[in-house]
């Protein structure tokens, strides 16, 4: 048996591959286009592992995906591949439509053709698991209950609109063609291999480099943080036991205001790697202009996955964030590796006054 996973040179996917191979002997075919966010050094630990086969390519390349399916005969396809950064989607939405919408459509079509030709028993056991986000539900007021699976989709950014579109395609391929799909909608992840365009790694790395820690607007926007390995264990559980056609919200019940997240990171760094001048990293906090259309609050109601599949996160925010800071301190070579020209260009474009 084999699974085909897409986008697993990125942050969550690479963590998924490590977690999968630690728990299973079942091989993984990893299809990734290696965009700016795809980094083979995330997979260095498994480069000589025969259970991991890396293929460079686009989820929208029907010929390539068709060939991989017929060669490897996977029992499941898990789609992590996406353009994932909200700020980039605001500056250039085209790639988000191309990969997240058109790419997912092409992938669904090739998978449907493969699945429809499988013998009955394998056809019944096959799964297409689509990895999505809580951002499809839009934004919450302070007093609103967290997002449940029954909430209406109200995406507000080009990124979340493109993910919402892909979720709708996945749903329709189940409803219309009977493709055995599962969809997961997860809150903000953090942990090892997180690309430093996103808040938590950006703050850790800027702090250590003596640079400003940029807080958008008033810093009181709320995100619901989940340690990446918990997201990966939830995906494994949904793949194993999820009900066909169902969606599962995944979250850690860890709502935090951005400014509190940044202050927590500063306090951990003050303890583990104090500044040479003995002052706090919090002095580097700098308020900058807000993200256009910035969603105020996300929060996940994770009761369905707990009730139906018995999944719960292993980490609290406090334990997960400490592990994360330690990982970045211990992996400075990985950090220098990702700070390529593309990354530096992006930083100057995004934070230009
Ligand atoms: P990421 O940007 O770190 O990685 C995305 C990966 O997909 C990269 O390796 C990239 O090279 C690859 N990719 C992009 N376009 C591709 C294409 N056309 N064909 C093949 N590969 C392609 O993203 P991430 O944070 O790891 O997110 C993974 C998935 O999880 C995404 O679908 C995202 O929407 C979803 N998600 C992310 C979070 C989060 O907090 N990061 C939370 C919930 C859901
Ligand atoms: O909710 C899940 C989503 O979380 C995923 O679907 C996305 O792929 C992922 O990128 C993430 O989106 P966010 O926009 O919430 O993550 P980001 O790290 O970009 O920002 C987190 C919060 O911090 C957000 O409110 C914006 C703010 N922020 C971000 C950056 C990069 C700042 O205040 N300053 C910054 O420099």
- CATH architecture descriptor text of the domain at 3-190 and 227-253 and 294-315: 3-Layer(aba) Sandwich
Helix content: 40-55%
Classify the fold: give the CATH topology of the domain at 3-190 and 227-253 and 294-315.
Answer: Rossmann fold
Radius of gyration from the CA trace? 20 Å
What binds here, in terms of ligands, is:
nicotinamide-adenine-dinucleotide, 2'deoxy-thymidine-5'-diphospho-alpha-D-glucose
Number of helices, where a helix is a run of at least 4 consecutive DSSP H or I residues: 13
Overview of the structural elements:
It holds the Pfam family GDP_Man_Dehyd. With 353 residues, this protein is an alpha/beta fold. It has a domain at 3-190 and 227-253 and 294-315: 3-Layer(aba) Sandwich (Rossmann fold), CATH 3.40.50.720. The protein has 13 helices and 12 strands. Strand 1, helix 1 and strand 2 form a beta-alpha-beta unit. Helix 7 (199-208) runs parallel beside helix 9 and helix 9 crosses helix 11. The longest helix is centred in the first third of the chain and has 23 residues, at 94-116. The protein is globular, with a radius of gyration of 20 Å. Bound molecules: nicotinamide-adenine-dinucleotide (NAD) and 2'deoxy-thymidine-5'-diphospho-alpha-D-glucose (DAU). 2'deoxy-thymidine-5'-diphospho-alpha-D-glucose binds at residues 84-86, 133-135, 187-188, 198-199, 202, 214-216, 221, 223, 258, 291, 298. Residues 84-86, 133-135, 187-188, 198-199, 202, 214-216, 221, 223, 258, 291, 298 line the site of 2'deoxy-thymidine-5'-diphospho-alpha-D-glucose.
């Amino acid at each position: 048996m084999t699974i085909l996973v897409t986008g697993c040179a990125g942050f969550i996917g690479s963590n998924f591959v490590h977690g999968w191979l630690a728990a299973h002997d079942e091989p993984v075919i990893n299809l990734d286009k290696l965009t700016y966010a795809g980094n083979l050094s995330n997979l260095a630990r498994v480069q000589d592992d025969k259970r991991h086969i890396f293929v460079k390519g686009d989820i929208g390349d029907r010929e390539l995906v068709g060939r991989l399916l017929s060669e490897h005969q996977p029992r499941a396809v898990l789609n992590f591949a996406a353009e994932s950064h909200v700020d980039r989607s605001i500056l250039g939405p085209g790639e988000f439509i191309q990969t997240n919408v058109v790419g997912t459509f092409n992938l669904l079509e090739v998978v449907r053709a493969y699945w429809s030709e499988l013998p009955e028993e394998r056809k019944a056991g096959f799964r297409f698991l689509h990895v999505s986000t809580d951002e499809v539900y839009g934004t919450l007021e302070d007093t609103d209950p967290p997002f449940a699976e029954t909430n209406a989709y109200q995406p507000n950014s080009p990124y979340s609109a493109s993910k919402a579109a892909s979720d709708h395609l996945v749903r329709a391929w189940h409803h219309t063609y009977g493709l055995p799909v599962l969809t997961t909608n997860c809150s903000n992840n953090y942990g090892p291999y997180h690309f430093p365009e996103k808040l938590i790694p950006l703050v850790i790395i800027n702090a250590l480099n003596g640079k400003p820690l940029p807080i958008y607007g008033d810093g009181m926007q709320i995100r619901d943080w989940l340690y990446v390995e918990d997201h990966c264990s939830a995906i494994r559980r949904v793949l194993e036991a999820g009900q066909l056609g169902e969606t599962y919200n995944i979250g850690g019940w860890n709502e935090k205001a951005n400014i509190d997240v940044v202050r927590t990171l500063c306090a951990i760094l003050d303890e583990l790697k104090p500044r040479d001048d003995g002052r706090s990293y919090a002095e580097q906090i700098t308020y900058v202009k807000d993200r256009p259309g910035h969603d105020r609050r996300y929060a996940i109601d994770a009761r369905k996955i707990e009730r139906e599949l018995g999944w719960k996160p292993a980490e609290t925010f406090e334990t997960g964030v400490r592990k994360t800071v330690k990982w970045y301190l211990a992996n400075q070579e990985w950090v220098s590796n990702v700070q390529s020209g593309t990354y530096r260009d992006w930083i100057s474009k995004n934070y230009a006054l």
